[in-house]
Amino acid sequence: MNEEIIMAGFGGQGIMLMGKLLTYAGMKEDKEVSWMPSYGPEMRGGTANCTVIISDKRIPSPMSSKPDSIIVMNLPSLDKFLPKVKSGGTVFMNSSLIAEEVTRDDVKVIKVPANEMANEIGNSKIANMVMLGSFVEEKNIVKPETVKESLEKVLSARNQKLIDLNVKALEKGKEFK
Amino acid sequence: MGEKVLMKGNEAIAEAAIRAGCRYFFGYPITPQSELPAYLARKFPEVGGTFLQAESEVAASNMIYGAAGAGARVLTSSSSPGISLKAEGISYIAGAELPAVIINIMRGGPGLGSIQPSQADYFQATKGMAHGDFSLTVLAPSTVQEAVDLTMEAFEIADRYRNPVLLVGDGIIGQMMEPVEFKEAIDPDELPKKEWATDGAKGREPNVINSLALEPEDLEDHNMKLKAKYDKMKEEEVRYEELYTDDADIIIVAYGTTARISSRAIEMARKEGYKVGMIRPITLFPFPTDIINETADRVDDFLAVEMSTGQMVEDVRLAVNGKKPVHFYGRTGGVVPSPEEIVNKIKEIGGEK
Question: Which fold has domain A2-173?
Answer without folding.
Answer: Pyruvate-ferredoxin Oxidoreductase; domain 3 (3.40.920)
